[in-house]
């Protein structure tokens, strides 16, 4: 066997406890956005499911890991460093670690985006922090 290979044996034993995380349990406040922190659920990634009205979106921030956005519905203007891009339903974009970024719903209807953080915990530094 090549020493760089990893051999795993699959199991038919499912994890114990709750394996389905309900949408309601992830909801942030009274809004439609949900936050999943992977560490709390044995996952190596975290995510936000964002559901915004026109004109809404998070402020400028960065992470010490990459973030990938999947636009599920609507139109987003994405700012990555000094670039501005437009993504629509079905598009995917990734911002590298350490790059300032934000997005905003620039469409007429709701914007639904899955924001996948390449980390079991969410670490954000906001530009407008005092």
Automatic annotation (TrEMBL):
<dbReference type="InterPro" id="IPR014710">
    <property type="entry name" value="RmlC-like_jellyroll"/>
</dbReference>
<protein>
    <submittedName>
        <fullName>Cupin domain-containing protein</fullName>
    </submittedName>
</protein>
<dbReference type="InterPro" id="IPR011051">
    <property type="entry name" value="RmlC_Cupin_sf"/>
</dbReference>
<feature type="domain" description="Cupin type-2">
    <location>
        <begin position="50"/>
        <end position="116"/>
    </location>
</feature>
<keyword id="KW-0479">Metal-binding</keyword>
<dbReference type="InterPro" id="IPR013096">
    <property type="entry name" value="Cupin_2"/>
</dbReference>
<dbReference type="Pfam" id="PF07883">
    <property type="entry name" value="Cupin_2"/>
</dbReference>
<dbReference type="GO" id="GO:0046872">
    <property type="term" value="F:metal ion binding"/>
</dbReference>
<dbReference type="InterPro" id="IPR051610">
    <property type="entry name" value="GPI/OXD"/>
</dbReference>
């Amino acid at each position: 066997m090549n020493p760089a290979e990893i051999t795993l044996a699959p199991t038919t034993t499912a994890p114990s406890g709750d394996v389905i995380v309900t949408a309601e349990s992830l909801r942030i406040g009274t809004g439609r956005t949900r936050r999943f922190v992977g560490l709390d659920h044995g996952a190596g990634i975290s995510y936000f499911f964002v559901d915004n009205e026109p004109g809404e979106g998070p402020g400028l921030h960065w992470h010490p890991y990459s973030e990938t956005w999947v636009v599920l519905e609507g139109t987003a203007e994405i700012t990555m460093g000094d670039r501005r891009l437009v993504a629509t339903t079905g598009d995917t974009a990734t911002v590298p670690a350490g790059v300032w970024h934000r997005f905003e719903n620039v469409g007429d209807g709701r914007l639904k985006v899955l924001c996948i953080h390449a980390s079991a915990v969410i670490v954000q530094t906001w530009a407008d922090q005092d």
